[in-house]
Design goal:
By secondary structure, this protein is mainly alpha-helical. It has two domains: 79 residues, Winged helix-like DNA-binding domain superfamily/Winged helix DNA-binding domain (Arc Repressor Mutant, subunit A, Orthogonal Bundle); 104 residues, Winged helix-like DNA-binding domain superfamily/Winged helix DNA-binding domain (Arc Repressor Mutant, subunit A), CATH 1.10.10. The chain contains eight helices and five strands, in the order H-E-H-H-E-E-H-H-H-H-E-E-H. The strands form two sheets. Strands 1-3-2 form a three-stranded antiparallel β-sheet. Strands 4-5 form a two-stranded antiparallel sheet. The longest helix is centred in the last third of the chain and has 31 residues. About 6% of the residues have low confidence.
Length: 218
């Protein structure tokens, strides 16, 4: 088994997301999948993929047993097979998809951003599954012995370290800049946390609106 490309990871992440957020239109048609890949919200980085690029990624993911294809009334439809192919629980699949779609995040951000895929009781609950993904060493699994996520070194001045998925290989880490002259106060940290929470909830509302528009064909 090989590592995924960035486009393949985006396609897989969208299929996992849409299974939970728009179940009435899932499995997805190629057009719906391309639209999900090219969303401007809840995506990091933002991509602009063509039908041909997404179809090529689907063909490759099918060869890895990560995607299945079915015949709809008029068009072919596609679904992910991540939980069965990688033998992992739905909680882990939700966290992995959120990392594929939104890039590196702290455990607290992951808990908030994955809420529509799986609602974790608290940040500690999410960390349990993140640690399991980071410690996967079963040689019977497709991507083993490589772990599927990793905790990045804490950035200078950051309160928490961020997690990153490894389905596309090790991330390119930015060069550490000079440390800040003064450390942020706990009050500043709390304010930033509150801003992140509010931003994530606004993003979730925008996602729901986009899903409704897609379902209504507007």
């Amino acid at each position: 088994m090989r590592l995924l490309t960035a486009i393949e990871a985006r396609v897989l992440g969208v299929l996992i997301e849409k299974e939970r957020t728009v179940p009435d239109t899932y499995p997805l048609s190629l057009n719906s999948l391309v639209a999900g890949c090219n969303q401007k919200t809840s995506r990091d980085p933002v991509m602009s993929l063509t039908d041909a690029q997404v179809q090529e990624a689907l063909d490759e993911l099918r060869s890895l047993s990560l995607v299945t294809e079915s015949s709809g009334a008029k068009v072919m439809r596609f679904a992910h097979n991540t939980d069965r192919a990688l033998k992992m629980p739905s909680q882990s699949v939700a966290l992995l998809a959120t990392l594929m779609l939104r890039g590196p995040q702290t455990a607290a951000e992951l808990r908030i951003n994955s809420e529509r895929l799986h609602r974790f009781a608290d940040t500690g609950s999410a960390e349990v599954f993140l640690n399991e993904l980071a410690e996967r060493m079963d040689t019977a699994q497709p991507f083993a012995p490589q772990a599927l996520v990793r905790l990045l070194p804490k950035a200078p001045g950051a309160r928490e370290a961020r997690w990153v998925h490894l389905l596309c290989g090790e991330p390119d880490l930015p060069m550490a800049g000079p440390a800040a002259a003064t450390s942020p106060s706990s009050g500043d940290d709390e304010l930033r946390d509150q801003v992140r929470v509010l931003a994530a909830r606004v993003q979730a509302l925008e996602d729901e609106l986009a899903a409704l528009k897609q379902a209504l064909g507007t």
